[in-house]
Design the sequence.
């Protein structure tokens, strides 16, 4: 069984158990939900006979201890220990974007590379950084780099302006769609119109790609990645409509040799990268390799 097959097998088994049990149990989200009722609505939490894994939005972790979380009441909280106790199993904890980056690096578009960036465009913008064959496990809020000084306010609890998340997320694309096509439209409609040949939709998605590329170009000048992988629900849906302009903009800002060689490619694991990454985190906890 390949590592990816092992991950998928793990996820399928958990989904199967979660579907079969309505009682709070050691096999599903319900158990920890009772303790942390506001935490888990958008996040992954798995446990199986052998192990458990947790990934969540905007967590900052260090050896499984949560140092801080922008939108969750979990500052300085040892969630791995809590999960280990609750499940009676080895448990791993990781930021969801870091988990996606881990999956794309180990099993997806970044296989075999030593230096890469992974960006996930969804409700927000997440990111992970692999440097010298090592996933950076700390604070890597790539969605909050500034790409437009005095730009639109950042959504959520961030008080900044013109951040990547405010300009290149699915939420930002929703806003563009509503502006062009009315209050019922969303990012999905924007992408659909662009694929049907609507020049304005193509142009506005390219603009989003330009913001993304500005961030990527700046990051390339700091981290010198061999590859930039873009996933997340919106990233996957928009594909080349955003990634093409992003690569062009990134090369415009990047120093040589990235100015001609830097590649921006779609995630191979798609929007499921975070899920596969959570399984990898769980295996790390089981194997003691974290
Ligand atoms: Zn921000």
Sequence:
């Amino acid at each position: 069984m390949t590592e990816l097959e092992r991950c998928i097998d793990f996820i399928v088994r958990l989904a199967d158990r979660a579907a079969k049990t309505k009682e709070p149990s050691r096999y599903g989200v319900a158990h920890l939900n009772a303790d942390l009722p506001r935490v888990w609505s958008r996040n992954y939490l798995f446990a199986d006979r052998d192990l458990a894994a947790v990934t969540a939005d905007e967590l900052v972790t260090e050896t499984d201890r949560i140092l801080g979380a922008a939108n969750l009441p979990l500052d300085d909280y040892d969630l791995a220990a809590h999960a280990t106790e609750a499940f009676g199993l080895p448990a791993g904890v990781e930021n969801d974007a870091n988990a996606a980056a881990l999956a794309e690096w180990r099993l997806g578009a970044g296989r075999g590379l030593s230096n890469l960036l992974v960006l996930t465009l969804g409700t927000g913008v997440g990111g992970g950084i692999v440097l010298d064959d090592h996933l950076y496990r700390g604070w890597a809020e790539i969605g909050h780099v500034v790409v437009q000084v005095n730009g639109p306010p950042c959504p959520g609890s961030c008080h900044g302006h013109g951040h990547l998340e405010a300009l290149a997320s699915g939420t930002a694309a929703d806003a563009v769609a509503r502006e062009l096509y009315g209050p019922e439209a969303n990012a999905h409609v924007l992408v659909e119109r662009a694929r049907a040949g609507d020049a304005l939709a193509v142009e506005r998605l390219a603009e989003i790609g330009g913001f993304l590329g500005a961030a990527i170009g700046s990051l390339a000048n700091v981290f010198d990645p061999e590859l930039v992988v873009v996933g997340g629900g919106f990233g996957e849906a928009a594909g080349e409509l955003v990634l093409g302009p992003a690569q062009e903009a990134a090369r415009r800002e990047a120093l040589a040799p990235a100015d001609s060689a830097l590649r921006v490619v779609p995630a191979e694991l798609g929007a499921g990268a975070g899920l596969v990454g959570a399984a990898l985190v769980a295996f790390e906890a089981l194997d003691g390799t974290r």
